[in-house]
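Reviewers asked in the last cycle whether our approach scales beyond single polypeptides. To address this, we selected a multi-component target totalling 316 residues and predicted its structure end to end. The input consisted of the following lines:
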Amino acid sequence: MDPRVDLITLGVPDVAAARRFYVDGLGWRPTLDVPGEVLFLQVGHGLLLSLFGDDALVLDMGLPAGRSPVPGADPDPPVLRTAFTLAHNVESDEEVRTTLAVAERAGGRIIKPAQRAEWGGVHGYFSDPAGFCWEVAHNPGWSVDADGTVQIRPVEPG
Amino acid sequence: MDPRVDLITLGVPDVAAARRFYVDGLGWRPTLDVPGEVLFLQVGHGLLLSLFGDDALVLDMGLPAGRSPVPGADPDPPVLRTAFTLAHNVESDEEVRTTLAVAERAGGRIIKPAQRAEWGGVHGYFSDPAGFCWEVAHNPGWSVDADGTVQIRPVEPG
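The resulting structure, written as structure tokens, was:
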């Protein structure tokens, strides 16, 4: 697994409120803007920040709402780790599986095994020893220009 | 405020356990490694991931331990937002102040006003409407090579 973060996802209770702050307030220009659903903002070379409904994020992770993704995680202090995830893109569906296996061998815990994602690619989730969650994804619609600009185009579900 | 994340900090209960996973397990090479205290890993062009003690992170944010940084934040489900922060670097001490003011006008909440940081620069924290916390920092010891590699050198306290 290469040391690389491609996407930071913040699970927010109100995507419209997040939009008012980041787009209207700070003046950041969306890469992708689906009102009330999700907002993607470029925040670095090949790096996006995603503002995504927290319920939708928990669902995407394959978890029941409101539950910590780490069985047996220390409940004191209570931490909803699902409020944010880091994502790591790989080049093939198979590499999603092998990368999750690498993370598990390294001491991570598989939260969601590799599977077809709603957006057309393949993804899975693991947590690190502290409970922080990483998504591993193959998204054929994601590309990065030479200057670091991320392009996202729809993917035909396979 | 430019749309840019420079540093992702994960507040972990055990920095040595995080090191075993990311360095020994995944094989990622530290940019900075202070055993038991902090671990910096390069995870993108000009982007570092920091594994930092969660108690130390809360202290750095100027908050009492275990408390949510957002007064009045929804306690159900309980969310310890301090478990992670995003950092945004600026070019001068004065720009830390003006950037925090911009974030406040945009609807953010000042968590820690601009002040001299232990590591020699100047920093402050604000939270976005969902409670996610951003550090705004001027770190004269932080530089980015043309290829995106981050260099960190000690700063003389001013």
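Confidence is low (pLDDT under 50) at residues 67-81 of chain A. We regard this as preliminary and will revisit it once experimental data from Aim 1 are available.
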